[in-house]
Specification:
Layout: H1 3-49, H2 59-84, E1 101-104, E2 112-115, E3 146-147, E4 154-155, E5 184-186, E6 190-192
Helix pairs in contact: 1-2
Length: 218
């Protein structure tokens, strides 16, 4: 192959590469020009509607300021939600308890400490005024109270047949005719506590405590 032909091929190859480079440069320049034109339009809109001084700001500098401003607004969203979002309700005294045993958290508090039967008369003061170690701890019960077997513990009527064993011998849940505090009857005279209904675990022999809308109406 002659040197003239090789030189011609090199020249053609170089021309093609140069052309591709010019095309790529032209495309990049066209894109930048398009972005700049759009930013000019946005800047002019701001200048005509609210802020006339932005007319003097270069388009690309205005774009940077606009991006920073939008980022600042997004960072303020959580703060605005905390300031103007829904307010959590104030704490209220506990009135609908699963246990009839309760005592004030302290002398000036409306909040209550809820106890179960196992925490009564156990030698440990759970209430600030030792209410749990005095009020229910009796060897002889009054009329209407239930005496737990083997304990000096007298339970009020509202602690009976609620599905919760407050006596160590479980006598407060035996021979129930009616269940209270949302508990449901199953297997004759056994009460299942409201908190144990439809919990995925069968407490009744026939699993009726897990059959919503059939045996029980919740």
């Amino acid at each position: 192959m002659s040197k003239e032909r090789i030189g011609l091929m090199d020249a053609n190859g170089g021309s093609a590469e140069t052309g591709r480079g010019m095309n790529e440069t032209g495309m990049a320049g066209g894109f930048a020009e398009s972005v700049e034109q759009k930013m000019d339009a946005v800047r002019d809109w701001f200048a005509s509607h609210c802020c006339g001084f932005v007319k003097e700001i270069p388009s690309m500098l205005f774009l940077i300021f606009l991006c920073l401003f939008l980022a600042l607004l997004l960072s303020l969203v959580p703060l605005l939600f905390l300031l103007f979002g829904p307010v959590a309700p104030e704490s209220q005294p506990i009135v609908d308890m699963k246990s009839p045993f309760s005592c004030p958290l302290d002398d000036s508090s409306h909040n209550l400490i809820c106890l179960n039967g196992a925490q009564l008369c156990d030698g440990i003061s759970h209430c600030p005024d030792k209410f749990d170690e005095t009020f229910y701890c009796k060897s002889e019960c009054k009329e209407g109270e239930h005496k737990c077997g083997g304990q000096d513990l007298c339970l009020p009527q509202e602690a009976l047949c609620n599905g919760i064993d407050d006596c160590r011998d479980g006598s407060d849940e035996k021979d129930c005719e009616v269940c209270i505090q949302g508990a449901k009857m199953c297997n004759g005279r056994k009460c299942v506590a409201a908190s144990r209904l439809c919990d995925g675990k069968s407490d009744c022999e026939d699993a009726s405590d897990e059959k919503v809308g059939k045996s029980f109406e919740l």
